[in-house]
């Protein structure tokens, strides 16, 4: 009786499925691996077949390749002589068969064609088989030359046999491997159990993504189509899968053939990426993104490396192109100080500055734990950097005199500030003390010690301020602008809006609220904000600092303003939840000092272009140094009273455009 046995060998601890409901037999073999098998019976002879998660034995692959070669020789003779082999050829046939088979086996052993893992067969394996087979065929040609010119002027192997056998052997060995691979993939990941997936991008990355899905049994995904913006690829096939033009994507999603879309284009424009994601969210399609090639493990992509897209991908922010040569000339070999270094902006500036090889980098902050974490990260990322970490308060005169006097920075990035609008409304004295008095102290010391440049990080809330925080930042802008004088320290201001993921940003807040099951809290249904990513903002800060000649206030292109309600809805969708069913949105009313709409320019300002398309210069009214010094001195005298209303009146006296947000804006007339 024939026993046709299928045995799946897996490593100990691996979970094994039970295909087709066939009972499994679990036992330990001599190597400590678990053996799971099932058998069929037939009345002929035993035929072992090994298809498993453990590598197929190399001797079995070599034996099958040898049989393929022998069959190829037989087929070559039949084809060559039209299936009627002459008698005189049959005399030499056994010797030719033995010689060709022997040479092939030796070449396979030397070329190790049997050593590949069949279930991962690729074009590289096919190329190796072809090259080794070619070497063997060249040996046959050499044999013919010897027998013809050196022995008895006859060809031991007809050249037509050499050519046919070469082609059939390569085809047979490659086909065998592909059939085993297909059978393995189908067994561990049956097609009928897989859900559809669309791969956006029919290039090399798209092909690698498909192969990663095919290779990983846990994905349970089947590629139903490739979609690409390139019209030249439309209508073609990639590994048997149709390539469609991107214009057909929405129709494909409406058909419901796919539940997932994978973005497999490395250099896709941010705006185009956002369009595709929005379209998928509209049809409740899950979106995954492949990581950059540098993050692939050992140069190979796996399904587990695919990541869910995040809200940043939906804002359509294109990659910033930096003038790296200018940055290097500006920062390399310089002593650089960063205040507020442990904050979102300060820490990213530190990372980006360190790339350009400063002589030394001083990280200053009064927050101990975040600064400790930043130091550990920086020392790991930049082990060769001369890194110095200082805990200090920028409003502490003696401490700052010591730090600035000892370090004597050449370039200063001033990011230290209080930034939370509602909190500063209730703690106006601290806002004035840090944002205004601290900036004055630091900038005076830098000018005294001969710093080359002082780059202040400001905010769009300084434009027509409606809050204490915005007003104090505007006062700081006015002061550093007035300090700039030819031949001295060059004072430069950069002004931009909200950054995604920063401490206190709406994005982390929404994420936490979603994790807790909601509700998501929004102050007003019509509130809008400008957003950019932290790396993007810091790149523009460095670029503006390098191009600045002193006295400028640089504005960044923040793109289109985003309605916070729309942002919340998209984050809910990205989390796989349904608004009104799984989670709610609640409107809480505008907070003290909060605007409905942010501005980047005051009414009396306009802009001038720079060489960088995302950086502009604000034309602002000039400020007299003596006037601003006196104004800040008078403002400082109100600190002793610690009365927020007194400070607000003082700020309004020096900043006429400072008007606290009207409570009428607090009325809510809409719902999500």
Descriptive report:
- Helix content is 42%, strand content 17%.
- By secondary structure, the protein is α/β, with parallel strands linked by helices.
- The chain has four domains: 1-53, no CATH class; 55-187, no CATH class; 192-309, Rossmann fold (3-Layer(aba) Sandwich), CATH 3.40.50.720; 335-498 and 532-559 and 599-666, 3-Layer(aba) Sandwich (Rossmann fold), CATH 3.40.50.720.
- The protein has a nine-stranded mixed sheet, with helices on both faces. Strands 7-8-6-5-9-10-11 form a seven-stranded mixed sheet, sandwiched between helices. It has a four-stranded mixed sheet with strand order 2-3-1-4, with no helix packed on it.
- Helix 1 crosses helix 4 (159-188) and helix 3 (123-152) packs antiparallel against helix 4 (159-188).
- The chain is elongated, with a radius of gyration of 36 Å.
- The model is unreliable at 1-52 and 663-672 (pLDDT under 50).
Descriptive keywords:
672 residues, alpha/beta, Rossmann fold, 4 domains, nine-stranded mixed beta sheet, seven-stranded mixed beta sheet, 19 helices, elongated, disordered N terminus
Give me the secondary-structure topology.
Elements lengths: L1 E9 L14 E4 L5 E9 L4 E4 L7 H23 L6 H25 L11 H30 L6 H30 L6 E6 L3 H12 L5 E8 L8 E2 L2 E5 L3 H6 L5 E4 L6 H13 L3 E4 L17 E2 L15 H8 L3 E5 L4 H11 L5 E6 L2 H14 L5 E5 L5 H11 L3 E4 L6 H6 L1 H21 L4 E5 L10 H16 L6 E6 L2 E3 L5 H10 L4 E3 L5 E2 L1 E3 H14 L5 E4 L5 E2 H11 L10 E3 L18 E4 L5 E5 L5 H13 L6 H11 L18
Parallel strand pairs: 1-4, 5-6, 5-9, 6-8, 9-10, 12-13, 12-15, 13-14, 15-16, 16-17, 17-22, 18-21, 19-24
Antiparallel strand pairs: 1-3, 2-3, 7-8, 10-11, 20-23, 22-26, 25-26
Helix pairs in contact: 1-2, 1-4, 2-3, 3-4, 8-16, 9-16, 11-13, 13-14, 14-18, 14-19, 15-17
């Amino acid at each position: 009786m024939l026993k046709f046995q299928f045995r799946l060998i897996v490593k100990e601890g691996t979970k094994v499925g039970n295909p087709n409901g066939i009972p499994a037999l679990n036992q330990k073999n001599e190597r400590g691996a678990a053996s799971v098998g099932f058998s069929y019976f037939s009345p002929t002879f035993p035929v072992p077949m090994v298809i498993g998660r453990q590598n197929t034995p190399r001797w079995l692959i070599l034996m099958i390749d040898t049989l393929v070669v022998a069959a190829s020789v037989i087929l070559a003779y039949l084809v060559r002589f039209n299936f009627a082999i002459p008698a005189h050829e049959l005399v030499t046939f056994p010797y030719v068969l033995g010689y060709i088979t022997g040479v092939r086996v030796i070449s396979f052993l030397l070329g190790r064609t049997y050593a590949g893992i069949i279930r991962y067969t690729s074009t590289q394996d096919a190329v190796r088989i072809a090259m080794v087979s070619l070497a063997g065929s060249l040996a046959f040609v050499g044999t013919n030359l010897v027998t013809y010119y050196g022995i008895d002027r006859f060809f031991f192997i007809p050249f037509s046999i050499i050519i046919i056998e070469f082609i059939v052997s390569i085809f047979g060995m490659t086909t065998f491997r592909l059939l085993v691979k297909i059978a393995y993939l189908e067994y561990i990941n049956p097609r009928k159990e897989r859900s559809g997936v669309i791969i956006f991008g029919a290039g090399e990355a798209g092909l690698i993504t498909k192969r990663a899905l095919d290779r990983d049994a846990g994905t349970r995904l089947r590629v139903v189509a490739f979609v690409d913006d390139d019209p030249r690829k439309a209508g073609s096939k990639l590994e048997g899968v149709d390539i469609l033009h991107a214009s057909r994507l929405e129709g494909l999603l409406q058909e419901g053939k796919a539940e997932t879309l994978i973005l497999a284009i490395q250099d896709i424009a941010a705006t185009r990426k956002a369009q595709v994601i929005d379209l998928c969210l509209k049809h409740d399609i899950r979106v995954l993104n492949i990581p950059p090639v540098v993050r692939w493990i050992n140069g190979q992509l796996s399904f587990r490396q695919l990541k869910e897209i995040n809200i940043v991908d939906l804002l359509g922010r294109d990659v910033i192109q930096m003038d790296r040569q200018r940055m290097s000339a500006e920062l390399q070999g310089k002593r650089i100080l960063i205040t507020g270094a442990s904050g979102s902006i300060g820490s990213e500036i530190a990372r980006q500055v360190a790339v350009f090889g400063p002589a030394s980098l001083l990280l200053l902050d009064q927050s101990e734990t975040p600064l400790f974490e930043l130091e550990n990260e920086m020392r790991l990322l930049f082990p060769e950097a001369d890194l110095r970490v200082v805990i200090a308060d920028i409003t502490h005169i003696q401490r700052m005199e010591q730090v600035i006097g000892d370090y004597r920075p050449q370039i200063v990035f001033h990011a230290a500030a209080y930034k939370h609008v509602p909190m500063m409304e209730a703690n106006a004295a601290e806002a004035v003390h840090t944002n205004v008095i601290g900036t004055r102290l630091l900038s005076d010391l830098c000018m005294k010690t001969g710093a080359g440049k002082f780059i202040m990080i400001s905010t769009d809330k300084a434009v027509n301020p409606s809050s204490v925080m915005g007003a104090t930042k505007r006062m700081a802008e006015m002061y550093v602008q007035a300090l700039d004088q030819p031949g001295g320290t060059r004072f430069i201001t950069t002004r931009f809006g909200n950054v995604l993921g920063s401490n206190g940003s709406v994005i982390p807040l929404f994420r936490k609220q979603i994790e807790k099951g909601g509700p998501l809290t929004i102050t007003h249904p019509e509130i809008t904000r400008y957003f950019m990513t932290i790396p993007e903002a810091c790149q523009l800060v460095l670029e503006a600092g390098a191009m600045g000649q002193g006295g400028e206030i640089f504005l960044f292109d923040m793109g289109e303003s985003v309605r916070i309600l729309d942002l919340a809805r998209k984050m809910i969708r990205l989390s796989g939840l349904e608004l009104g069913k799984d989670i709610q949105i609640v409107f809480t009313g505008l907070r003290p000092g909060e605007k409905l709409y942010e501005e980047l320019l005051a009414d009396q300002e306009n802009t001038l272009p720079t060489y960088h398309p995302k950086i502009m210069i604000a034309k602002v009214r000039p400020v007299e140094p003596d006037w601003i010094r006196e104004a800040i001195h008078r403002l400082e005298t109100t600190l002793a009273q610690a009365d927020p209303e007194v400070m607000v009146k003082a700020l309004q006296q020096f900043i006429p455009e400072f008007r606290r947000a009207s409570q009428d804006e607090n009325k809510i007339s809409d719902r999500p």
